[in-house]
Amino acid sequence: MLTTIFNLRFALITWPAILIVAAAVLMPVFPAQDWWLVPFAALCLCSVLLGLHDLRQTRHAVLRNYPVAAHLRFLLESIRPEMRQYFFEGDKDGTPFPRDKRAIVYQRAKRELDKRPFGTQFDVYQEQYEWLHHSIAPKQALPHEALRITVGATCALPYSASLLNISAMSYGSLSANAIRALNKGAKAGGFFHDTGEGGVSPYHRENGGDLVWELGSGYFCARSDDGSFDPARFADVATDPQIKMVELKLSQGAKPGHGGVLPAAKITEEISRIRGVPMGIDCVSPASHSVFSTPVGLLEFIARMRELSGGKPAGFKLCIGHPWEFMAICKAMLATGITPDFIVVDGKEGGTGAAPLEFMDYVGMPLRDGLSFVHNALVGIGVRDKVRIGASGKITSAFDMARTLALGADWCNAARGFMFAVGCIQAQSCHTGECPTGVATQDPLRQRAIVVPDKALRVASFHRNTLHALAELVAAAGLAHPSELRPHHFLRRASSDKVISLAEQYEQLASGQLTADPASSPRFAEAWAASSADSFARAG
Known about the structure:
- Among the domains are: about 1-80; about 150-260 and about 285-420 and about 430-480, Aldolase class I (TIM Barrel, Alpha-Beta Barrel), CATH 3.20.20.
- It is about 40% helix and about 10% strand.
- The strands form four sheets. It has an eight-stranded parallel β-sheet.
- It is of the alpha/beta class.
- The protein is built from 22 helices and 15 strands.
- Helix 7 (about 100-110) packs across helix 17 (about 415-420), helix 7 crosses helix 19 (about 450-475) and helix 16 packs across helix 19 (about 450-475).
- The chain is globular and about 100 Å long.
- The chain has helices at about 1-5, 10-25, 35-55, 60-65, 70-80, 80-90, 100-110, 175-190, 200-205, 230-240, 270-275, 295-310, 325-335, 355-360, 365-380, 400-405, 415-420, 445, 450-475, 500-505, 515, 520-530, and strands at about 130, 150, 160, 165, 195, 210-215, 245-250, 260, 285, 315-320, 340-345, 390, 410-415, 490-495, 500.
């Protein structure tokens, strides 16, 4: 018994208990001015009571074996990310974004020196290292204002989009002040701000920056009382001049194929008003849409969105899953003659939304693979000139943009990059509501840390300086415009003695190749044969 009581594991119970008894005995002996015995005894009593509680609780086994002391383990675990980031992390370390990636955003947002001394820290002979071919005859770099692309050229209201824009992040996921800063920065810099599927909030509208309205399966801001799509409500919002394009969300990189539930307890009067959902009832975002069930139905709904918006560019966003499903959409384009004005390809590495680990790590196609697939599929059916492609997924630097554009994108969207510009420090507490910088929280006290005018300036500066760096990269490659970038401009070390271009890694189709001779492409032939314009199901 005594061995158990005086075991070192229980020392923070037994010894404080002994000291309490000793203090009680000695207190009458010491002069009254020796008051320190009182708080000392109180501290020992707290340790004993906490230890007894730890022994009796049933939730944590480590606390039952190491009462009081095990709390240190939980404390250290809670600050582990901060300890790693501030004391042990190298410039090339850190996930999902290494320190130097975050640093370049901060420096460009703050208009600080963004140069590096003493050569690259990469091992350039290591597998996976990539680089851009430069030219012996570089061109003059374009001004960043010239780096734009027209979307929906045949629409009544086409839109001139910047090559770098703010990706989908909803109010609710981000704080009101973060939304304000992002949109004010977009207004100053002349680029668009995607609303995310949470709807168009007053904070998106407040500063007048261009908006792309993302409509998810919950149809927020455009839903009937029963949760179905309401065309009249959609038209009322979509015709707002601030909204430049309308985008149907099919899936997202963070959790493709996964719906969501906003519990009734979290639905405030403000969220109820913005999203058009009742209070007191769980708000469900289904995994699939109710307005269509076939590829043809999807395209017909896209055409309906374009019409209801007054002729604004309409398209959809997805993370590529089953390849035959996108091929089915391609066949539907040929069958109906309806093409979306744009498609946004989200890579599985995208991830501002909280998601189950299995979905975040193992579901969905990475951006490069998905983007190359979509681009070449549209080329293969001969409609690439009618459909613009946006791309999102871990884009923070000009090199990220250049490589993405080379693989087939017309423009890039960034989410976490702009979050860094607003003040995000990658604390990875977005889903807890306890964001230390006030970016991803609804706590009014926390979000007041974001000073909107200052952060808006940083958002605009990050955009401008990143595009400036892109223009210089393109000029160094001997090209006049980013649209001239191609996969063969980028090389990748496949092994210690082998270097390949991205053109070798990703098959490139000729215009109309899929319709003329689908069997000529091993990568696309199986998916093409398994697809049908009338169903998303695998044929055969």
